[in-house]
Write a structure and sequence with these properties.
- The chain folds into two domains: 7-169 and 278-363, Zn peptidases (Aminopeptidase, 3-Layer(aba) Sandwich); 171-276, Alpha-Beta Plaits (2-Layer Sandwich).
- The protein has ten helices and 17 strands.
- The protein has helices spanning 7-18, 27-45, 84-87, 102-117, 141-148, 196-208, 246-257, 281-298, 314-319, 344-363, and strands at residues 50-54, 57-63, 70-75, 91-93, 96-98, 125-130, 153-156, 160-161, 165-169, 171-180, 216-224, 234-243, 267-276, 305-308, 324-325, 331-333, 341-343.
- Its cofactor is Zn(2+).
Amino acid sequence: MSTSLDVRQMVRDLERLVTCESPSHDVKATMRCADVLTEIAWRITGRRPEVVSRQDRPHLLWRFGGRTTVLLVGHLDTVWPLGTLDRWPFEVDGDLATGPGSFDMKAGLVQALHAVSTLTDLDGVTLLVTTDEELGSPTSRAWIEEQARGARAAFVLEASADGALKVQRKGVSLYEVIVGGRAAHAGLEPHKGVNAAVELAHQILAVQAFERDGTTVTPTVLSGGTTTNTVPAHAGFTVDVRAETVAEQARVDAAFGALRAHLPGASVEVKGGPNRPPLESSSSAELFARAVRLARQLGLPELRGVAVGGGSDGNFTAGVGVPTLDGMGAVGDHAHAEGEYIVISAMAERAALLAALIDDVRAG
């Protein structure tokens, strides 16, 4: 493995990616950014990707040689709408760089490509880049799982707040609870109605009781009713659930399936279920131990591991049984917040660590 990394070039590559805005909902914008990433990758690695279309949405795959042993996972879509650069341009201030999508997670893509460029042997290395991660990976999930199966390790290029690697992510489940009642005049004969809003209140309290240590059950969006003088015949709410283990995710799912109406004449329907399986600590433990050892050998800052509630595509790779280490991307902070930034000097450090991990895993 060569250790030659040009940090100034890494920053120039990052600027090109950040200044090509790529909001998830705008497929054409993500395609433009995919073209920019392809040009950068061609210059760095001499390889062009396979463009994989899923439901008319493009994703990119660089298979550098042979059957996948190590899978690198990233995304180029961001949460920032077109025009964000007009008020918040890409800027470098000392050792920090900022701009929409710089931290989450375009710097991680740059670091991965430069890491790959230092390897003398690329056999078994595959880089997968999606364009819908911020939407929950609706078109890419099955493809990610397909590419991951059989790999020895998956390294996820998501950002790393204050340098901490993500060794555990909660699983995500999403539900919609739909309540039916019966309309009536709220002033003349409310007793003839079945109040869906009251039933909704009972259901919110019921699902709140599904929480326990480590599991969050959060009602989010509520709707219901038609006019101020009508007993509502319909209501509903959505629920965000985060759980640390597959067993806990299944417990909550069964509890949602057992919901029943409280008011006579009311009905309850539940849609949804688990969206992302958890990345359990057992999936990352061995890879994290390797990373700590290699970071010490490289003279890098001591690594920390953290458990977080947010999900990533690493949940999918871990869910199919592949050892997964997340947070291998940029060091910085403020993901999804205006002012997100990366630490420039850490780009080469993390690229070197990723390259060392790839070689270490392939050596076996």
